[in-house]
Amino acid sequence: MPKLISFTSISLDGYFTDPSGDMSWAHSQDPEWNAFVAGNASGNGRLVFGRVTYQMMAAFWPTPAAAQAMPQVAAGMNAMPKIVFSRTMTRADWQNTEVKKGGPAEEMSRLKRDGGPDMAILGSGSIVAQLAEAELIDEIQIVTVPLVLGRGRSLFAGASRHLPLTLTSSRRFQNGNVFNCYGPKR
Asked: What is the pTM for the complete model shown?
């Protein structure tokens, strides 16, 4: 059964977007961090998005600016198969993207049963909250960025119950980012 991983950056005060939905504050240009990100983007899994995050990513990664700024990451992001959950999109223009209209929990249960490569949810807070509550996420990877936003959107906003997790690994970067991996406490 494929593993489902959530990867998200959050501010010190727990937000994954600022009040306008922007996530650019989470990107730093640092050799150690860039090597880590490039390693993550070189996998052979599938990427999973909600519509809003998908549209943000699709507006950047296929561009010449992305290829110039982060060539390895851009190549990986563009080549990997992608799934976007959306009730409103009729088609997706970013290469290798499949639009799923059904409920995220039902669709993800089916995808996991059907097998295939591991999957990684990038950002997509409402999808993460729904799939975490349905106990479908196998690992939650959170990068804490040393920045206070003051306001924004919480990653698990809308969760209707406690979701106990266990810290499985941690790594500190020279730029101040801290990468923590959590698994569900079952």
From this structure: 0.88
